[in-house]
Structures are given as C-alpha cells and as structure tokens.
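[User] At your convenience, examine this fold.
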Amino acid sequence: MKYLACSLLIFLPGITAENSGPIFHEVPAHDSCIKWVHENARSSNHYLPETAGPGVAIFDYNNDGRMDILLVNSGSATFYTPPIALHHGLYRNNGDGTYTDVTQQAGITADLFGIGVAIGDFDGDGWSDIFITGYGKCVLYHNNHNGTFTNVTSASGILPLKWGTSSVWFDYDNDGKLDLFVGQFANYSEKRICQLRDSYGGSGEESSKEQAYYCSPKIFPPLPSHLYRNVGGGRFQDVSEQTGIASRAGKAWGVVAADVNGDGYVDLFVANDTMENFLWVNRHGEKFEEIGLESGIGFSADGGMRSGMGVDAGDFDRDGLEDLIVANIDGETTSLYRNKGKEEFEDVNVKTTIASTTRMFSGWGLAFFDYDNDGWPDLILTNGHPDDSVDDRHRGVTYREPIFLLRNIDGRSFENTSKFAGAAFEKSYAARGLAVGDLNNDGYPDIVFTENGGPPHLLMNSASVANQWLGLQLIPKIANPDAVGTVIRWSLNGKIYSRTKIAGGSFLSSSDPREIIGAGTSGLDWIEVRWPAPSHTVDRVSTPKMNRYMVVREGAYSGSGG
C-alpha cells in the first residue's frame, strides 16, 4: 500500500516530545504521505477567485475512531481550464502517523473550482457527509458507510452558487435535522481584470495595459447568502427569503454558528470583506434579525468597514458567554469581541494585546483551542496577504506571512508564544484554511492549515505539558446529528464552567467535531451534557475517568442524578 513507502512517525498515542522541545512539530510530506498540493490557477490576468482557497476538514469519514483529512482543490471554471485533471485530497488516517490518499476510490471526483468545505451528518445516519463550495458550483456528497460517497447534489434541491465560500451545518429551527447556511462572496460574473488603480491598495496610478493585479473586492457588488432547511429524505428547501437571510447582501468569507444570547437558538456570525460584518440573531427558529451595527461587531471602533475573513466563537474569559473573533487585512488588526450579554459586544483586541500582534498582517484561518489543556481557550492565527505583488508596493507588508500561537493568560490577555511553538512558526506562508483536531487521539489538539497554491501543513502537538483532559464524542438520538448547540457544564475543584458546542468557524474549513475539556492538574468533579431542542435531555457523569475519550449517547446518563 502507498503509505508503506513513507517513514513511520513517532507521533503515536501516548508518545510525547521532551518537555524542553517545541510546542508543535511539523510533519513533512515524506513522513505523512500527504503529497497533495493546491492548484490556485494563477494566471497573468489575476482573476480574483485565484486568491481564495483552499479549505480543509478534519473528520472521521469511515468511523474507525481516527480523524481523517480532506483538502479542497480548484478545477474547471469560466476563467480556468486545468491542463490536467485536478483532484481534491481525502486522506485516510492509518493510525501510525501516515495517511493514505483515498480520494478516487471514495468517489470525491466532481470537477469544480472548489473553495470551502463543511462536514455534517445531514441525514442522521451516524456517518459524516461532505459539502464543498466553489465558484459557479457546489457539491453535496452522501456517505455510503463503506468508504465511498455519492454525489447527491442534483436531488438535494441545493442550487449552484455564483461564488460560494464558507458554509456551516446547524439546526436553526430546532427540529432535530441539520440545515445548511451557504455564504456567498461578491458578484464576479464579469470576470473583471484590474489594473493598479482598482487593485488591493491601489494608488490611483495606471500601470501598463499588459500588467494586471488582483482586484480589490470593494469594487464588486455583494451577494446574498443562502439558508437551506432540511426537510428530510435528502431534500432541502431554500428559506433565505422567509427567514430574512436574503434581506442583506454581503461578501461573506467566514461564518460560525453559535448561540450568542443563550436562548437555545443558534445564531450566525458572518465576516464580510470591505463592508460591515453581519450578526444574524435567530428569533425562535422563524426569522433572523441582522444586528451587526447594534451589537457592536459590524464596524471598527471608529466606524470603518473592514476586510473580515476568518471567524470563530468561544468563551475566552470563561464567563459563560460566547465571544467572537474575526481576522482582517493588514492595518486593520484582528478583532476580539467580548460578549457583554444582552446581544452587545466590546472589541477588546487592544486590551488583550491581539491588536499589536496582528496589526501588520492579513488573517485567514483561525481558531480558539486549548493547546495545553489548562482550561483557557488559546488562539491559532494564520496569515498571508491576498495580493502576490504587495511586496513591491507596500513597505512592511509581505505576501507571505508568519502564523501565530497566542496563549490565553487567565482570560485577560493573549501572549504571543510563537517563538516557542516550533520551526513552522518561524516561516512565512500564503496561508488560508485551517482546521484543528486531535489526529493521534492523545487529547491534545493538532493543526492542519493550507496554502494558496501550495502544500498543506500538519502540525502535531507535542503534548509536553501533561495536563489532565477529557474528550467527549457526543452521539445524539433526538437532538440534531452533530449536537450543535449542546451545552456542556462541568465542575472543577468546586467551580462550575460551561461551553456551548458551535459549528463552522475558521476560514472555508471544518474542525474535529469532538470536544476536549482541559482541566489543568485536576480531575473533574462531574460533567453534564444538556442536549439542545427538541431533546432537552440532560446526561450527567460524576468523577469521570480522565485522559480518554468518553462516548456520551443521548439519554445514557440521564438517570445519574446529582
């Protein structure tokens, strides 16, 4: 088999690096056997979609208990004809640190200019399905339970896109079925070719007729995103108009589904490029109200529109409320929005030092994750300017940029620990998508991020801190199949904490669906899973055994008491 030709890695469960070593180790392609490279279709005309992808997903496609990796590639489009057939990359985790390319045999073969990916079990059969967005097209793959997928797009009712970007599976109406939000970017149907004046950071000067630059998104009209309601039987109904989602056109890059006001209905935070961001608050599964301006997340502190890209949600200060983060282009800084309650947010990027760290960089994929399992959500940020000629025109701004690891200091600030994070953090990239997941099941989250026109990068967590942790694999019965909106509560040394399970986030990507609770040096007193409507079941386990993944089936521990 293919993976036998690759080196056997040392990153096996239970084997960790020495305490003095770096936090993450990058696994080279000759060791992982991941030889896939993104084709961005770069041309002398500099068509804008060339700058967008690719997305990446970490998920268990064959239910063997190991997280696999899916990488999205470009393909045929109205502005691009590949000289050779291109393919996405579905890599099966072999459990020994290597991966096998199973893309063709799995049937992931549709030809489209792919950009993003969302993973979700849309039919509730216990197997993860795949949705890929792209330019002019999208594809829905149903998991056949035997290592293969079937393209069911035409029968699903999901329509082709003008320019699809990030998407997310979530249950907006609490009927127990996964619905689908599909973000769209700008209307690029004219395939405009730009000179310097209309490019990123254009100075107003004209270049030669032969010289083209990537157009600034601000010159293109926005597009409305779509919300599809799952009506069962593999069919979806476009409810964008009646729910209000179609009432505001945007230039969506990133989206995360999270219950920001704690009312039991999952909301949507959408990052838009060169215009205000949207916060779609779910009003009881009937309508979405856009309150970006009112909530404080729509514009910068001085009222300016920014270039929103990657997003995520998480409770960074552990006050029980979902906070939001969005990456922007250089000069605009990444914004960290602290949830103040009552649907109001405050940008604390200056207070937490995130602003100074990110000021000169263009952010894409990002995620809250507790890399050291001390119980505080840390941050991973990837960067790279969209304009490949920016080095020649703007002092201090480069096309390739470093990635950052930021450690959460007691919910007050984020310390840039990149210099201790490993050799990968000393290099520069044209980074885009990012997913977080535990690839070797050691309880410490690993990282996969992609490059536009380059290879993916696999960063394994050294797990050298040796803190306590508990992993949760949630298996619903009545609640939605991905358990989005589930509230997890736990007691640690007599103090109660909580977390709500989100969906989506980052940029064009999907992360490991399991939850890891970091506990520092202690064990948990108890843990509780409150399943979302229509279930409302509560499962509770006292003094759970630590440092393992625990399967929680809805209702299995509902009579535990306590």
About this structure: Confidence is low (pLDDT under 50) at residues 9-19. The CA atoms of residues 192 and 497 lie 51 Å apart. The two ends are 51 Å apart (CA to CA). The helical segments are 29-32, 103-106, 153-156, 240-243, 292-295, 354-358, 390-393.
